[in-house]
């Protein structure tokens, strides 16, 4: 007798797969700093490392760009937006911000993006959100404050904070643009094609900003110290390009389509936790007690937001925990 899978079971399975992809993306993105820091300490400018990362990934994805060249005619605005905001904007604003304010402060401000995503959903898309979603964001951001130890070395620099906020806004663009075309009844563009052209656009923009012709190319021919252990610079670059960029973007975009921008945004906060743990293990940057507690709080916040969100296409409120908990009153989802 054949066994039929229920719609709810299929939805749970798809949601579980989306969560797994979102976690994989957070881990992949989180590993970029561990590989990039030795290259920077070896003599490469941070913006040059960013350019190598994006340009290298664009080169890897070039065959897919050729294969999906029809997207140039059907979705030119989406491709340009993804390249400008989700690739070049996040990277350029973040690295400019950390030149003026502490890295921890910049990272915390950038990861206000999940809260901004909820604002986009509520006030732009006019979809109701619930207290469960808001609670998840508050816990995740509060936990991040502990992970990055925002209280140490805080310097108020208006331009630096604005640049970090710009990185957060660009990250909102990443989640929102990744979700384009994923609603029922609309044919979604192939995520691999969107990523490929986004990286090409991002590489072109960053070429103007980073000016790679002034880079110390000889650094890539030698090794770079990772907590006292020499590692081939080419190997570190390969990790940044293939894992921390290509794999990270692919799993991240697919995760957004299986979950939703707001949920994937909260889960992405785990990137800071992953980055801190990897720095502890590979770079000898030890975690303090508040950082460990903060990491646990981020996990709790991500779980609350993920577990309380209905399947995509549901008429229920975003991150619905029941009608009585809606923040938006009597709003209707669209």
TrEMBL record:
<feature type="region of interest" description="Disordered">
    <location>
        <begin position="311"/>
        <end position="334"/>
    </location>
</feature>
<feature type="transmembrane region" description="Helical">
    <location>
        <begin position="78"/>
        <end position="97"/>
    </location>
</feature>
<feature type="transmembrane region" description="Helical">
    <location>
        <begin position="158"/>
        <end position="177"/>
    </location>
</feature>
<feature type="transmembrane region" description="Helical">
    <location>
        <begin position="46"/>
        <end position="66"/>
    </location>
</feature>
<keyword id="KW-1133">Transmembrane helix</keyword>
<dbReference type="Pfam" id="PF00892">
    <property type="entry name" value="EamA"/>
</dbReference>
<feature type="transmembrane region" description="Helical">
    <location>
        <begin position="289"/>
        <end position="305"/>
    </location>
</feature>
<comment type="similarity">
    <text>Belongs to the EamA transporter family.</text>
</comment>
<feature type="transmembrane region" description="Helical">
    <location>
        <begin position="133"/>
        <end position="152"/>
    </location>
</feature>
<feature type="transmembrane region" description="Helical">
    <location>
        <begin position="103"/>
        <end position="121"/>
    </location>
</feature>
<dbReference type="InterPro" id="IPR037185">
    <property type="entry name" value="EmrE-like"/>
</dbReference>
<feature type="transmembrane region" description="Helical">
    <location>
        <begin position="263"/>
        <end position="283"/>
    </location>
</feature>
<feature type="transmembrane region" description="Helical">
    <location>
        <begin position="230"/>
        <end position="256"/>
    </location>
</feature>
<feature type="domain" description="EamA">
    <location>
        <begin position="18"/>
        <end position="147"/>
    </location>
</feature>
<keyword id="KW-0812">Transmembrane</keyword>
<feature type="domain" description="EamA">
    <location>
        <begin position="159"/>
        <end position="304"/>
    </location>
</feature>
<dbReference type="InterPro" id="IPR000620">
    <property type="entry name" value="EamA_dom"/>
</dbReference>
<keyword id="KW-0472">Membrane</keyword>
<protein>
    <submittedName>
        <fullName>DMT family transporter</fullName>
    </submittedName>
</protein>
<feature type="transmembrane region" description="Helical">
    <location>
        <begin position="189"/>
        <end position="210"/>
    </location>
</feature>
């Amino acid at each position: 007798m054949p066994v039929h899978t229920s719609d709810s079971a299929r939805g749970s399975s798809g949601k579980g797969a989306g969560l797994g992809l979102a976690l994989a993306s957070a881990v992949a993105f989180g590993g970029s700093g561990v590989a990039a820091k030795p290259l920077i300490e070896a003599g490469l400018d941070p913006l040059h490392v960013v350019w190598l990362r994006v340009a290298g990934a664009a080169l890897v994805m070039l065959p897919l760009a050729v294969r999906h060249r029809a997207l140039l005619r059907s979705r030119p605005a989406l491709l340009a937006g993804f390249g400008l905001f989700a690739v070049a904007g996040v990277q350029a604003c973040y690295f400019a911000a950390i030149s003026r304010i502490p890295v921890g402060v910049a990272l915390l401000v950038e990861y206000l993006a999940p809260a901004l995503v909820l604002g986009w959903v509520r006030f732009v898309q006019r979809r109701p959100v619930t207290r469960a979603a808001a609670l998840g964001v508050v816990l995740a951001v509060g936990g991040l404050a502990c992970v990055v130890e925002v209280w140490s070395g805080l310097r108020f620099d208006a331009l630096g904070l604005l640049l970090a906020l710009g990185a957060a806004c660009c990250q909102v663009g990443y989640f929102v643009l990744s979700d384009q075309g994923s609603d029922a009844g609309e044919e979604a563009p192939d995520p691999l094609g969107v990523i490929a052209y986004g990286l090409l656009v991002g590489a072109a923009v960053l070429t103007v900003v980073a000016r790679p012709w002034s880079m110390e190319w000889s650094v890539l021919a030698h090794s770079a110290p990772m907590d006292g252990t020499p590692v081939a610079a080419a190997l570190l670059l390969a990790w940044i390009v293939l894992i921390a960029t290509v794999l990270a973007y692919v799993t991240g975009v697919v995760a957004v389509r299986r979950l939703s921008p707001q949920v994937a945004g909260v889960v992405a906060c785990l990137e800071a936790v992953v980055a801190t743990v990897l720095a502890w293990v590979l770079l000898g940057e030890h975690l303090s007690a508040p950082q460990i507690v903060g990491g646990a709080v981020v996990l709790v916040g991500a779980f609350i937001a993920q577990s309380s969100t209905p399947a995509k296409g549901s008429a229920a409120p975003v991150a619905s925990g029941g009608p009585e908990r809606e923040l938006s009153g009597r709003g209707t989802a669209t």
